[in-house]
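Tip: read the tokens left to right.
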């Protein structure tokens, strides 16, 4: 019987997950289908019960359900619990198990362009995406993390919640801008620079460290103003397609035990968005 996978969220019509997962199933010769389900918050409980009742093999979870789904699952892996968000659910013999592949997906993507050991990293933002990235990056050996956010209390809270004093510091955006030359890696997790506000950057800078890597989780536009400016100063840049592909690939592995071709996933997303590699 054909296996069924999917994603639940709202809005969901423009999700590129069906495109890359269905292609990966086809590439692997697996008899499976991935479908996007529009689910409003007041229908989440019923939707999860439906997934269980219908025997859906696994599904992704996106905005606005990543936190709310936790109490509806049978178990949740430790990292997802700490992050406080689930983006992947596996149906194992009727038990729904929650995972978070966003943080790991980001780190795997970042490792394609830089080693992380002993690196000085700046994270901009302290929202949902930053939580997963901050928590996962902090597990890497020798990293030193600074986090800045428009609302400073949120980055301080995050640091304290994850008990990262010693590894991480919360600093102001002004301080981060002033000291930008210290960072080997700059990670942009806010919505600043996203379509339609494509001319905004979360902080100003005029010089960067030599060989610095700038990674922005935004992929629409494919190259944010921040990445354009960093690239002009000689940085290696990476857009959000890379994280998107890796979080999907890790979900696919949880469901099937096999890792899909992430380069192919990136290419499909890029073609879909109609742009050149970044
Ligand atoms: P996500 O789940 O995508 O991370 P979120 O949880 O709403 O979304 O977080 C959005 C992030 O973008 C936050 O760090 C937010 O800063 P605040 O905590 O101060 O709200 C940041 N952000 C959004 N708009 C911003 C702006 N105009 N300037 C600076 N930061 C902004």
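Filled-in amino acids:
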């Amino acid at each position: 019987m054909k296996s069924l996978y999917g994603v639940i969220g709202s809005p969901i019509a423009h999700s590129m997950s069906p495109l890359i997962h269905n292609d990966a199933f086809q590439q692997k010769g697996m008899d499976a289908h991935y479908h996007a389900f529009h689910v409003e918050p007041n229908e989440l409980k019923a939707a999860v019960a439906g997934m269980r009742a219908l025997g859906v093999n696994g599904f992704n979870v996106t905005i606005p359900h990543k936190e709310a789904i936790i109490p509806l699952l049978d178990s949740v892996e430790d990292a997802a619990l700490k992050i406080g968000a689930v983006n992947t659910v596996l149906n194992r013999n009727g038990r729904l198990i929650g995972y978070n592949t966003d943080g790991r997906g980001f780190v795997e993507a970042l490792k394609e362009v830089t080693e992380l050991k002993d690196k000085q990293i700046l994270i901009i933002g302290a929202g949902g995406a930053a939580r997963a990235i901050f928590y996962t990056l902090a597990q890497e050996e020798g990293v030193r993390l600074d986090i800045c956010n428009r609302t400073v209390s949120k980055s301080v809270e995050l640091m304290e919640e994850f008990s990262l004093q010693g590894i991480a510091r919360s600093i102001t955006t002004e301080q981060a801008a002033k000291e930008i030359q210290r960072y080997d890696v700059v990670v942009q997790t806010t919505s600043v620079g996203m379509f339609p506000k494509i001319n905004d950057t979360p902080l100003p800078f005029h010089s960067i460290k030599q060989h610095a890597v700038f990674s922005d989780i935004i992929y629409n536009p494919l190259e944010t103003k921040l990445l354009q400016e960093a690239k002009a100063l000689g940085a290696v840049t990476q857009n959000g397609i890379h994280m998107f592909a890796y979080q999907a690939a890790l979900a696919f592995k949880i469901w099937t035990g096999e890792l899909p071709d992430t380069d192919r996933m990136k290419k499909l997303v890029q073609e879909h968005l109609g742009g050149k590699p970044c």
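The radius of gyration is 19 Å. The pocket of 2'-monophosphoadenosine-5'-diphosphate is lined by residues 125-130, 149-151, 154, 189-192, 202 (CB under 6 Å).
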